[in-house]
Amino acid sequence: MKNKLIAVLIATVAAAGTAATAIPASAATAQPTRCHTADLKAGFATGGDAAPEMNQTRHQTQAFIWFTNKSNRTCTLSGFAGVDMVGAQSTDGTWSLVRSAKRTHKITLHKGDTVDFSINLAPVAKSTPKKQKFVPAKFVVTPPNETKSFTLKWPFGGQILKQDGATHPATYLNPIGE
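Structure (tokenized):
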């Protein structure tokens, strides 16, 4: 049946005086779809210079969270992850980080590829009053456009200036790949 259809198509095109090449649908290149939480694994970058400088209070520092494609397919990530910091103090609660104004771009991840994003942090001294500091215990990280999350234990210690209600806090997240 398939061969008859192709023969009719070729005959119709030949009668019109135009040549055509039939391409099977299976040969068309499919664009990768977005990565789902189940396709990924996540963690904090902890090696070498990736660790934030939580023992200083003179300037912002950065922590990096990575996503690795553990699936057998190629997928894409674009935009911002959702990040909620859960505090260690009874007064901390959960702090949903705001996004930077940086532009986003699509990242393609083949099997085993890794991409990260940064979180800018404003560390404060241990002597800072309890109500002015947030002590991170864990981070709940949701990949872009997903609803399932990873829960990552905060491995770096220190404390952050508590600005969970600020319009432009010094602690915020950057897009995937930044």
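The chain has one domain: 32-173. The first helix runs from residue 2 to 15.
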